[in-house]
TrEMBL record:
Belongs to the HINT family. It catalyses: adenosine 5'-phosphoramidate + H2O = NH4(+) + AMP. The keyword Translocase does not apply. Its cofactor is Mg(2+). It holds the Pfam family HIT. GO terms for biological process: nucleotide metabolic process. A motif (Histidine triad motif) lies at residues 93-97. This is Adenosine 5'-monophosphoramidase HNT1. Residues 5-108 form the HIT domain. The active site is at residue 95. GO terms for molecular function: adenosine 5'-monophosphoramidase activity; nucleotide binding. Keywords: Hydrolase, Magnesium, Nucleotide-binding. It comes from the Eukaryota.
Length: 133
């Protein structure tokens, strides 16, 4: 997609601070970092959401994220991947954030609005999901 900012970065039309590149994957520093070492890892294959990208195009993503974690020396960090506008995805090309969390104020700050659930309903839903996997 010509209008996709990440596709344009892959093509070299927009500069980036590359950290790692292979045939399938690109990793680069985030230009609006939440902490030192905040990086993005993207498949070179354009897909708006995770389910849009073929499995073989995702095979290097986790190993690359792990390389970044090791390179930064982060002991606490978040790996974040959003799908869809209401899930906070701003660039509609699959991407993963590796965000070091060096202290309470730097890095990703999140709340987790969990709720309690009925165990029998959870089990029934698990069976439904398992039948589709």
């Amino acid at each position: 997609m010509a209008a996709c900012i990440f596709c344009r970065i892959i093509k070299g039309e927009i500069p980036s601070i590359k950290l790692f590149e292979s045939e399938k994957t690109l990793a680069f520093l985030d230009i609006g970092p939440l902490s030192k070492g905040h990086a993005l890892v993207i498949p070179k294959y354009h897909g708006a959401k995770l389910a849009d990208v073929p499995d073989d195009q995702l095979s290097e993503i986790l190993p690359t994220l792990k390389k970044l974690v090791n390179a930064t020396g982060a002991t606490d960090y978040n790996i974040l991947q959003n799908n869809g506008t209401i899930a906070h995805q701003q660039v509609h090309h699959v991407h993963f954030h590796m965000i070091p969390k060096p202290n309470e104020t730097e890095g990703l700050g999140i709340s987790w609005p969990s709720t309690s659930s009925d165990l029998e309903k959870l089990k029934a839903y698990a069976e439904e999901l398992k039948s589709k996997i």
